[in-house]
Design a protein that fits this description.
Elements lengths: L2 H5 L4 H15 L1 H20 L5 E9 L10 H4 L7 H12 L1 H11 L17 H5 L9 H11 E5 L5 E8 L2 H59 L4 H38 L4 H5 L2 H4 L2 H23 L5 H90 L8 E5 L12 H26 L6 H5 L6 E6 L16 H15 L9 E6 L6 H13 L4 E5 L7 H4 L9 H6 L4 H4 E3 L5 E4 L8 H5 L2 H13 L2 E5 L8 H5 L5 E7 L5 H13 L4 E9 L6 H7 L15
Parallel strand pairs: 5-12, 6-10, 6-11, 7-9, 7-10, 11-12
Antiparallel strand pairs: 1-3, 1-4, 2-3, 8-9
Helix pairs in contact: 2-15, 3-15, 6-8, 6-9, 9-14, 10-14, 13-14, 17-18
Length: about 725
């Protein structure tokens, strides 16, 4: 690579994108041709289709109340339909049963619409295909009918659009309107049937309820007479009040008894202890006892005072002591009286509590008996009231149903817009189909081209070259065009190719690792890779600076003489090896450049034996004394082993590879064969490259012919 090329650095992203898109540009005419071909086929197909027309009718579908809840109040208070009810109506319009009704009303089974295909009469074969002489079955017509019918509810409204598609504008209008009318008739049938069913059901229910009401009233009256009930509610109230009073009295009596019981038991335990009895609260707090105790204290003080003044026999002292004894006797008597009274009170409280308890038990029994009577009575009464209410409600429903007559309940269906005759077809949209087919075919073919270039196992992209490790890449030669005005079939009128060959020449001359090769062999993997052209133009490129000999060593299928418009039977290499001609008779001089050419000559029966002669090696050494560079074109390596033999006597081997034809496996196999004999492989030359951008820099300098300076030719020797 020269210094100018090293200075040009293209971003990796741009290179990758160019390698992807370059195949499209290279094959642009094929891409355009096949795209237009597919588009024309689609356009022709679309032109064969019958035009389709659609007609749309709009219905309003309101609330659908169950017929059993029909009433006068509901009849004049319309409400919005629930989501479930609206969806039910939509599914009804889409149902198979409903489609059969419309088909029967319009007699669509015999209509031509359902016994023809989608093609017009331009091609009789297509128009007659699919037709049946017999009338199609109802199932077939229904399936085709449902495919063309579209029910589209409008969101947040009660409106629904009925759309029918047909090849006939009149039929599409007729069917769309007939669906709405059939739906109206269907709702009328449902209402009338529902009304008759409801009325009969109400009559049957009234008869049954009347019998139940009569039986419940009779049972209530029999129970009242058998139990003698006049006012059960009042009697139960009185008993309940009495029970409440008895409960309160019993509780008070028991509490009083319990309070006296403690005192009574204390008295019984201290019957002989008069002092202990005096300590009872009932005794000590008694008024008479308190007064006697005060008198006793006064008399005791008097006795104490007189004892200090008088002797025991003094009359005053004796009188006071007698008074004291009298008071103490009265205290004892009073204590006994209080104790006796307490005992009597306790015994009386016990008897009273028992009596209240007995009366309370009797009252409870009476209350429970009356409660059972009351519950049974109210149960019969409720049954009578319920039967009366049900009978009255059903009677009102029957009267309302008779009074409403033909009113169509809350549910309503109205035609908002009837379908009109469509003026223009809705399909096929030929312009849209053609545009889409053009775009899709272009994209599909582009993808095929790109994928083919990416997936083919050749060296047709920079990415694949970077991953190629078997041998160094010397140069990439672009696809060239032969000069049709030239007499020689090998003249290339392409500056890019010429400069690429010069780049190859520079790579061979200025390899810093070793001495530039003098004898160079040019070979390839398989035939038709362009090795002959590369060898010829490489020799011409070297001849611009030095004296060069081009030897055509492909004795099996020689092409150099033919490409240079030379006599294919003229003497050449095979004649020199066979010693039938002299060197000056076999070598010719290129008229344009300083280049000598040794063609293959007459093809021998065993070319490998000729090339294996020592004379061939000696001949190359002799030529090396007269020429600065010798370039030998050899047969393909994978076809024959001639190139392997020749590689032993050359300084360098150039391996030519066709960019888009030579498989990588073939390249690897050929290089392996050369490496096995230690051939001096210089590197690989990529020929006829279309997808690898090698001329970004060259375009800048060599596209303009005015920039090229033609040096005068050196005199030929």
């Amino acid at each position: 690579m020269n210094r100018n090329q090293e200075n040009i650095k293209v971003p990796v992203e741009d290179i990758a994108l160019s390698e992807i898109l370059r195949p499209l540009w290279v094959r642009r005419w094929k891409l355009i041709f096949f795209t237009l071909l597919i588009t024309l086929l689609i356009a022709f197909y679309v032109s064969l289709l019958k035009p389709s027309f659609i007609a749309t009718a709009t219905l309003q579908i309101g609330n659908n109340k169950p017929s059993n809840t029909l009433s006068i109040n509901n009849a004049f208070n319309e409400t919005n339909a629930s989501k479930e009810q609206v969806k039910t109506q939509y599914e009804l319009l889409r149902s198979r049963k409903f489609a059969e009704r419309v088909i029967t009303r319009l007699n669509l089974s015999t209509h031509e619409e359902f016994n023809s295909n989608k093609y017009n009469d331009k091609i009789s074969f297509l128009s007659s295909m699919g037709k049946n002489e017999n009338t199609p079955s109802l199932n077939t017509v229904v399936s085709a009918f449902k495919e063309r019918l579209t029910i589209s509810p409008i969101g947040d409204t009660e409106l629904v659009k009925i759309t029918f598609r047909s090849y006939s504008p009149e039929l599409s209008k007729q069917v769309a309107n007939q669906i709405g009318e059939t739906y109206l008739h269907y709702q009328d049938e449902i209402y009338n049937s529902s009304k008759e069913t409801t009325s009969q059901w109400l009559v049957d229910q009234l008869e049954e309820l009347g019998q139940k009401l009569e039986a419940s009233e009779l049972a209530l009256q029999d129970y009242r007479e058998s139990e003698g009930i006049v006012d059960i509610q009042g009697i139960v109230g009185l008993v309940a009040s009495e029970l409440t009073e008895l409960t309160s009295s019993s509780l008070k009596a028991e509490k009083y008894r319990d309070d006296l019981k403690v005192t009574y038991e204390y008295i019984q335990n201290n019957k002989e202890n008069i002092r202990g009895l005096m300590e009872l609260t009932e005794v000590s707090s008694h008024a008479t006892y308190v007064q006697l105790r005060r008198s006793q204290e006064i008399v005791e003080r008097k006795v104490f005072e007189l004892a200090k003044r008088y002797g025991p026999k003094h009359p005053k002292k004796i009188a006071v002591e007698a008074e004291l004894e009298s008071i103490e006797a009265r205290i004892h008597q009073q204590t006994n009286d209080i104790i006796t009274s307490i005992e009597k009170q306790y015994l009386s409280a016990v008897q009273k509590a028992q009596a209240n308890k007995q009366r309370l038990a009797t009252a409870k029994i009476d209350f429970l008996r009356l409660s059972r009577l009351k519950n049974k009575f109210f149960q019969l009464q409720r049954e009578v009231d319920t039967n009366k209410e049900l009978y009255g409600n059903y009677l009102v429903r029957l009267k309302e149903a008779d009074a409403m007559g033909n009113y169509k309940t809350n549910f309503y269906v109205r035609f908002i817009d009837k379908a009109t005759l469509p003026k223009s077809p809705i399909a096929p949209n030929k312009s849209l189909y053609i545009a889409i087919s053009f775009i899709l075919s272009f994209l599909a073919i582009s993808i095929v081209v790109i994928m083919r270039e990416l997936l083919v196992d050749t060296l047709n992209s920079r990415r694949k070259l970077d991953n190629f490790q078997e041998a160094p890449i010397l140069a990439v030669l672009p696809k060239f065009k032969l000069d049709l005005n030239s007499k020689s079939h090998s003249e290339v009128n392409d500056n890019h190719f010429t400069e690429a060959v010069r780049t190859l020449r520079t790579a061979l001359l200025f390899n810093g690792e070793k001495k530039p090769p003098k004898v160079i062999a040019v070979t390839s993997s398989v035939p038709s890779e362009g090795k002959s052209t590369v060898a010829l133009h490489l020799a011409r490129s070297f001849s611009e600076m030095e004296k060069v000999l081009l030897i055509e060593a492909d004795l099996r299928h020689p092409t150099v003489a033919k490409n240079l418009n030379l006599d294919v039977h003229r003497p050449g290499l095979s004649n020199l090896l066979a010693k039938t001609h002299q060197i000056n008779e076999c070598i010719i001089r290129d008229k344009n450049v300083k280049l000598d050419i040794l063609t293959s000559g007459i093809s021998p029966a065993n070319p490998l034996a000729f090339l294996s002669m020592k004379r061939f090696g000696m001949l190359i050494k002799v030529f090396g004394n007269f020429y600065d560079r010798i370039i030998i074109e050899t047969p393909p390596v994978n076809a024959v082993s001639d190139a392997v033999i020749i590689s032993k006597i050359v300084d360098s081997v150039i391996y030519v590879v066709h960019s888009s034809k030579t498989k990588r496996e073939q390249i690897t196999q050929g290089l392996r064969m050369l490496k096995q004999v230690n051939a001096p492989i210089e590197g690989v030359v990529i020929n006829q490259s279309e997808n690898i951008d090698t001329d970004k820099y060259q375009n800048k300098y060599y596209n303009d012919m005015a920039n090229i300076i033609k040096l005068p030719m050196r005199k030929q020797m």
